[in-house]
Design brief:
The protein is an alpha/beta fold. It folds into three domains: about 55 residues, Electron transport complex subunit B, putative Fe-S cluster (3-methyladenine DNA Glycosylase II, Chain A, domain 3, Orthogonal Bundle), CATH 1.10.15; about 250 residues, Alpha-Beta Barrel (TIM Barrel); about 120 residues, Rossmann fold. The protein is built from 17 helices and 17 strands. It has an eight-stranded parallel β-sheet. The protein has a five-stranded mixed β-sheet with strand order 13-15-14-16-17, sandwiched between helices. A two-stranded antiparallel sheet has the order 1-2. Helix 5 packs parallel to helix 6. It is globular and about 80 Å long.
Length: about 450
């Protein structure tokens, strides 16, 4: 049975030393209860407490980090089956398969894409980060792994059945935490020994959930924490069933042998690129921590990244921009001033329309805790006595001395009151209700 934060706190040393990374022992206990921290983070916990808390305090799905630096991929730490219950924690790491039979030009192209491909979506930079290297020849495996690290700094998945080949490829890169793929019934002990020796994560692969659970139990018994599971799903139905059953067992039943993140290879399931993207989308939606594609065609990668971002956005925390003045199209002191809220979708919708208008403009973004215009107005956050101090303190009058402020058409009713709050020298103008009408409005404003 899971313990409450207070029950866990009673067994902690209560030193408030902060060495665990949390400000107090109570805060640490609450994170343990939520499955967001590891008991090993406390340097002073007693052996008796470890024995009592060890199993109860571990997160239902273990945290695993693959790679290092900006390209590192963190998976696991999930605590719910459905996003609306709380939130999902870590977006899946999207990657590409590189094999020993590819020519140099193809490898260079894939690694170049992996290094350079990045998309900005509502304020977040999204990109593929993983290179899965598959080679039967140990020398080629090591060479391709080193090449992928050097050229792209990618998080690596090293694929070979031989523990010796995995060790030879991983040892020079052990600080980059490559994932060893894969431990099976035949080679589990050997691969686990290499993973333990190098301090890197390993994957477990089996052709049924029963066998996967048996190997997962061996990992638990060996105290291996950084493990990734591959149930070898062969069809779309298998993907849905396997991923769901693994997640349910871990979350609902606290079944430790399956309490690890998963990896999926839609690249091996079909030769049809569009069907592969469909399979990959199911892996993304149904819990996979790492998803490997056959190539990095932006037309398929971009939708998968957007899907991941949407699923893994915290539903309890609005996406928001930083408050401030955003210049668009190189505005001057004569350019129009628009003001709106810091809800990310509002910002990107308005800014894209302003940019499309080709009219230089100043976009003033006001912090309303990430709410949209009407929601913030209804909550009393985007109202005259809040907007006026924001504009005066923002310094926009120094950038555009004309002080003509355009407010969204949906809050036209506050224009008179805002005029009074701003005082002499300012002029409030009512803009359009729909973002699509912004270009025409701005062109007319500039013409006048």
């Amino acid at each position: 049975m899971a313990l409450s934060g207070l029950q866990i706190f009673k067994l902690l040393p209560k030193t408030n030393c902060k060495e665990c990374g949390f400000p107090t022992c109570m805060a640490f206990a609450m994170q343990l209860a939520a499955g967001k921290a590891e008991l090993d983070q406390c340097p002073y916990v007693t052996e008796e407490a470890k024995a009592e808390l060890g199993a109860a305090s571990a997160p239902p799905i273990r945290k695993v980090i693959i790679g290092a630096g900006d390209m590192a991929v963190t998976v696991g730490e999930e605590t719910v089956l459905y996003r609306h219950e709380k939130r999902f924690e870590h977006m899946p790491g999207l990657g590409v398969l590189i094999t020993e039979d590819m020519d140099d030009a193809t490898v260079d192209k894939l690694l170049g894409q992996l290094k350079d491909m990045e998309f900005n979506y509502v304020g977040q930079n999204l990109r593929p980060r993983v290179a899965a290297i598959r080679a039967a020849d140990p020398a080629k495996l090591a060479a391709l792994a080193a090449r992928a690290d050097s050229a792209a700094g990618a998080a690596l998945v090293l694929i070979n059945d031989d523990a010796g080949a995995l060790k030879a490829a991983a040892e020079p890169l052990k600080d980059k935490k490559p994932l060893l793929y894969a431990a099976t019934e035949e080679n589990f002990d050997a691969v686990a020994a290499v993973a333990g020796e190098l301090g890197v994560p390993m994957a477990i692969k089996a052709d049924s959930l029963e066998k996967l659970a048996e190997l997962g139990q061996k990992a638990v018994d060996a105290d291996l924490k950084e493990v990734v599971l591959d149930p070898s799903s062969a069809t779309l139905g298998d993907v849905l069933m396997d991923q769901t059953l693994i997640r349910r067992a871990a979350i609902k039943q606290t079944f430790r042998p399956l309490g690890f993140p998963t990896i999926g290879f839609p690249c091996d399931m079909t030769d049809d690129p569009m069907l592969e993207a469909v399979y990959a989308s199911v892996f993304v939606a149904k819990y996979a921590g790492i998803v490997i594609l056959s190539d990095l065609d932006p037309a398929r990668v971009l939708p998968l990244l957007y899907l991941s971002q949407n699923i893994y956005t915290d539903p309890q925390k609005p996406m928001q921009m930083e408050q401030g003045i955003y210049p668009i199209n190189e505005p001057t002191e004569d350019s129009p001033i628009l003001v709106t809220t810091n809800f990310s979708l509002t910002y990107f919708t308005v800014s894209s329309e302003v940019e499309a208008s080709k009219v230089p403009a100043w976009l003033c973004i006001m912090d309303v805790e990430g709410q949209s215009v009407l929601t913030a107005w209804a909550a009393g956050k985007f109202v005259a006595d809040a907007i006026a101090p924001f504009l005066k303190k923002s310094g926009i009058d120094e950038k555009a001395p004309h002080k003509k402020v355009i407010i969204p058409g949906y809050v036209a009713q506050i224009s008179g009151e805002l005029d009074e709050e701003l005082g002499d020298g300012w002029e409030v103008q009512v803009g359009v209700r729909e973002a699509a009408d912004i270009p025409k409005f701005l062109r007319q404003w500039s013409a006048n």
